Amino acid sequence: MHQNLEKLFSLKGRVAIVTGALGLIGKNHCEALSEAGANVVVCDLDQNKCNEFSKTLSEESIGIGTDITKKESVQKLKEKALAKFKRIDILVNNAAINDMFENPQAAAELSMFENYPLDLWQKSLDVNVTGMFLCSQVIGSHMAENGKGSIINVASTYGVVAPDQSLYKKPDGIQSFYKSAAYPVTKGAVISFTRFLAAYWGNKRVRVNTLSPGGVENNQDEYFIKNYSSKTPLRRMAVPTDYKGALVFLASDASSYMTGANLIVDGGWTAW
């Protein structure tokens, strides 16, 4: 049946859950879905902040504080979303953690593969992989039972290519930091999990795709921004709004024949 472009991209009447919704990109994901007409469930750890941000969105939305690493918390998220909106059509598995070191002076040494702490490795697996698994299992199962839905797993260019450690080298030649194995390993897992779930639930009309963003400019050191931009064909880092169109595309009927795919939006980073 013929549909015009406006209807293909419209999310009017649909309900979307976004995890990691209070992060830099997460907020833009919520705004994009709301601007396209969806009711958004803002999901992050802090209930009050989720509530506050949900009130800024253009369509009726709610905030639900959730720990995605705990199945009972994810089940409550599903139940509350259904109690409010009676349906769930879109799940954006956006929640993730990246390496943070309390002491910047020790960051270079601790982030080296040879010294990388096991607890940080485990924490990345818990949030970036297990959290995605649980949300997909609990919320995606509801979609499969209803015979429709779109799951979008947010990965990274570092799920496709290895980190370039030279990005973190200061102008004086000192290595300030090393990108650890945890982030690319977990983001690679996101892409593989997407393919698995797309094949598994294809006959249930649940589409599962990956969105792999490039680096976003966010008050990093000037040398890092310069290093990153010089290695990108478009010669700049992303701004948070650069992913809004891609997200709505994957969530909407505009991508109705797309599943198991990895949509890379990276300014050309992985092109060379």
Keywords:
Rossmann fold, alpha/beta, 272 residues, 7-stranded parallel β-sheet, single chain, 9 helices
Question: Uncertain spans, ≥5 residues at pLDDT below 50?
Answer: none
CATH architecture: 3-Layer(aba) Sandwich
CATH class: Alpha Beta
Largest sheet descriptor: 7 strands, parallel
Care to describe what's here?
This protein has 272 residues and is of the alpha/beta class. The chain has nine helices and seven strands. The chain has helices at residues 5-9, 24-35, 47-54, 71-85, 104-111, 118-146, 182-201, 222-230, 244-251; strands spanning 15-19, 39-44, 62-65, 90-93, 149-154, 206-213, 262-265. Strands 3-2-1-4-5-6-7 form a seven-stranded parallel beta sheet, sandwiched between helices. It is globular, with a radius of gyration of 19 Å. The model has no long low-confidence stretch (mean pLDDT 95).
Write the layout of secondary structure elements.
Layout: H1 5-9, E1 15-19, H2 24-35, E2 39-44, H3 47-54, E3 62-65, H4 71-85, E4 90-93, H5 104-111, H6 118-146, E5 149-154, H7 182-201, E6 206-213, H8 222-230, H9 244-251, E7 262-265
Parallel strand pairs: 1-2, 1-4, 2-3, 4-5, 5-6, 6-7
Helix pairs in contact: 2-9, 4-6, 6-7
Compact overview of the structure:
By secondary structure, the protein is of the alpha/beta class.
